[in-house]
Design brief:
With 295 residues, the chain is an alpha/beta fold. The chain folds into two domains: 11-189, Carbonic anhydrase (Beta-carbonic Anhydrase, Chain A); 220-295, no CATH class. Helix content is 54%, strand content 12%. It has helices at 2-18, 20-27, 46-50, 77-86, 102-108, 110-116, 118-124, 128-137, 143-162, 166-174, 225-239, 246-265, 270-294; strands at 34-39, 57-62, 92-98, 178-184, 191-195, 200-202. A six-stranded mixed beta sheet has the order 2-1-3-4-5-6. The chain is globular, with a radius of gyration of 21 Å. The relative contact order is 0.09. Mean pLDDT is 86; it is low at 211-222.
């Protein structure tokens, strides 16, 4: 508590004094641009990882970044969603999972929680579809990869749940709402975003090109290794590209999305695709800077 009180004092002396105009504007009302759904894990801070200021994000946080289907729970998630869309006019939603999620670990041992933590058990039952999907399709993976799959699939399942809300379905039908699926890696600080065309998670800078809205699951199938050799060579060549103009950066990004899509269709498995995504992480960030420069 002493640390918190010292923090309050520092907040008043540093942040408040240097952001007085912003705080005065916020006192008149809020106009957040994004509804951000995240886990309540203390290691996940939506404003910190997105470098956003007070008033920019409207945040829902709970164990496992879970959105119960419409009418399935009496918690505050449904009301918060309705208020964000209807009253605040938010047109972008991010559901963000994260690595080493305790809620997802609990989901794998759900029945053991029923006696000692019945409320946690009841809450995680809203993610039963995630557990069933992963256990029936990825049970042959080792524990670490299985957790990665659970986190990634859970974000997509929660988007499915989100779409059961009448106001969400209405705004999506009107083309007035976009939903994004992100996964945050605590150890590296990197964020990957679900790409519907490649059915994998890629650096979020690719969404600057207005990618399709997230769909459901992503491929983890194996493929013909020989047919993938030319695609790998193209990816290696693209890795060396250094665009000097916004147009060249956009072309490089489109080429990368195309190659990822081609690799997936030829059978490259999800783990190998994610390895390539990691290799391109720094390049894509540089390309994104060029795209931002144009805007």
């Amino acid at each position: 508590m002493k640390k918190l009180i010292r923090g309050l004092d520092k907040f008043r002396k540093t942040y408040v004094s240097s952001h007085q105009e912003l705080l005065e504007q916020l006192a008149l009302g809020q106009k957040p641009r994004v509804l951000f759904v995240a886990c309540s894990d203390s290691r996940v801070d939506p404003n910190l990882i997105t470098n956003t200021d007070v008033g920019e994000l409207f945040v829902i946080r709970n164990a496992g970044n879970i959105i119960p289907p419409y009418g399935a729970a009496n918690g505050g998630e449904g009301g918060t969603i309705e208020y964000a869309i209807s009253a605040l006019g938010i047109e972008q939603i991010v559901i963000c999972g994260h690595s080493n999620c305790g809620a997802m670990k609990g989901l794998l041992k759900l029945n053991k929680l029923q006696k000692d933590m019945p409320l946690v058990y009841d809450w995680l039952k809203h993610a039963e579809a995630t557990r069933r999907l992963v256990m029936e399709n990825y049970s042959h993976y080792n524990d670490e990869d299985l957790m990665d799959m659970l986190v990634a699939e859970n974000v997509l399942i929660q988007i499915d749940n989100l779409k059961t809300y009448p106001i969400i379905r209405a705004r999506l039908h009107q083309g007035r709402l976009k939903i994004y699926a992100w996964v945050y890696n605590i150890e590296t600080g990197n964020v990957l975003a679900y790409d519907a065309r490649t059915h994998t998670y890629i650096p979020p800078e690719g969404q600057l090109l207005e990618e399709e809205e997230p769909a459901r699951s992503f491929s983890v199938s194996g493929g013909d290794r020989e047919s993938l050799i030319p695609v790998k060579k193209e990816l290696e060549a693209l890795l060396k590209v250094s665009p000097k103009t916004p147009q060249a950066a956009e072309e490089a990004t489109r080429s990368l999305v195309y190659l990822f899509d081609k690799a997936r269709r030829l059978g490259m498995n999800n783990i190998e695709l994610q390895n390539y995504h990691s290799l391109f992480s720094e390049s894509v960030q540089l390309w994104a800077e060029q795209l931002y420069a144009r805007t």
